[in-house]
Amino acid sequence: MIEHRPGLRIFCHAMLLLGVATVALPIWITFVASTETAERMLQVPIPLVPGSHLLDNYYTVLFKGVEGASTAPVSRMMLNSLVMALAISIGKIAISLLSAFAIVYFRFPLRMFFFWLIFITLMLPVEVRIFPTYKVVSDLNMIDTYAGLTLPLIASATATFLFRQFFMTVPDELTEAARMDGAGPLRFFWDVVVPLSRTNMAALFVILFIYGWNQYLWPLLVTTQENMYTTVIGIKRMIPGGDASVDWNLVMAAAMLAMLPPALVVLLMQEWFVKGLVETEK
Amino acid sequence: MATVSIRDVYKSFGDVKVIQGISMEIASGEFVVMVGPSGCGKSTLLRMIAGLETITAGEIAIDERVVNDLEPKERNIAMVFQNYALYPHMSVYENMAYGLKIGGLPKAEVEARVRRAADTLELGALLKRKPRELSGGQRQRVAMGRAIVREPTVFLFDEPLSNLDAKLRVQMRAELQALHARLKTTTLYVTHDQVEAMTLADRMLVMSMGRAEQIGAPGEVYSMPATTFVAGFIGSPPMNLLPGRVEEGGEALVSAEGVRMRVPRAIPALAGHDVLLGVRPEHLEICETQSAMLAPNIDFAELLGSDLLVYGNLAEQRKGARIAARVAARLHPAMKAKNVRLPLRFDAENMHLFDPSTGKRIEDGGSRTPVAPPTAVPASSRA
Questions:
Q1: Which of B46, B79, B86 to mutate to test the interface with A (most CBs of A within 10 A)?
Q2: Which CATH superfamily includes the segment(s) A76-280?
């Protein structure tokens, strides 16, 4: 839009600043709270400038854990979360790439049947099939293991479907050129399909990493030991019920830490993420 | 260098018959162009030779080795695609080297071959670039380079120039000719462009509806079209085809409207028969009224610069067969008038006769030595 009226400009900026403030203020308050003492957090009004206990608080949550809360130190829980998020995103991308490759490039009996079978799982997210899934996982003795935490979430069709759509836009001539060059199917997969899917994989990785990191319901069910909790559950666990006092400064520090990795992933992979969603390199 | 034999080849996609029995022997080092309108099956035939399509019936042999069941890589051929099909994520060098690398050639040999091909095609400065950083002509060259480095016995080109602009097309055509002259590799080339076909081919295969209409050298196809399809497809504007019945004595044809068309050579053998008289627009010349063989009513003219194309009808009031003639450009003002009758004549050697029911050429035993065109289409397979 080409508009030169100053009034409109001021209005636009005011709206934008308001939007930023709405989003940023809670995060700021969280950050400020994580730098104060527990006592200060119980007084009114709540502080709006950072206090002097930043290092103390973060050291405490990361390596000692919160007193009275039945959780492991946050560093342990972050490791769990990291393993889970990475396993889900990498596992999903690997499986989806292969299954989409099979569905698009091979003519085998019941191909469309299998495609629809995969596709139908889109309608059945973890929450819907949570009891049967839980039963299977517990019968397989996978409670409190990383496998139990991640495997059921890896099996879903979103990424398969995405890659299928992408593969279908790759010109047939490219496949034929590879055949003329003597590349077998797996060679073609590694040398042509995977490199061409790089940006899509990156975009998907960002989305899936955040999806995996933020999982709440499933980890809550399959983890019973403190050292298997993920960060997201851990934060909830740090707030004891009843009359016990809450160490808000420590809870907030843990929340800040929990927000960090997804933000980092988005920041570091922003360029690739945008490319993967908009660019088609063919 | 290899021969290619196509022996009575058929191809169907389900119920759709795309190739309906084509046979052709291609000599080693020959440049053969397959030409025809869209959907005539020419690309399918090429892809069958490449091994990208299965062969429904018949046999294709490269150097006397039947390749029906061989993978493309086992046929020792190379193909250039219409949209080039370069690997977008690889550099020019990697694109050309990829097939050799897979083939397990030692690195030094790969490098030497790619350098040699790059020098031939003037790609030396571009080896590190990605395909998206190249122009259309450069991409085309890389695609050719990828074919050359494999040192195949047969080159296959699938409309390689149709994505280029007109000027570049002429230039690349010349380069292709030069390349073939140097490498002398057997080449099969598919195009729908008759100019490409005429200029590049040693022999051409004119196809229509999955059948071979004519196989022959460009000059032969032009001067002795085997069917009305070939007559209409090769040459621009297409050959005039004027229906009529041959008079008693064979001196003239009479059209359905009763217009009399004199022929330069009597054809008494055909008296009483319906025929199609074929004359190319460029073979018609303006003459005195009394010696005119045809005198169409001209209704419009197109100035091409050097020449003038005039169009008209044989009978009055836009009735009768359409006829086009290529005449000198200086006649343009004279053609502006309405309802001009243009007296035209042509030489006996430029007269073609076709059977209106089969569309096939009639050899009337005229002055020319009748050459049986090696169409290799068995009469039984024609409708």
A1: B79
A2: MetI-like (1.10.3720.10)
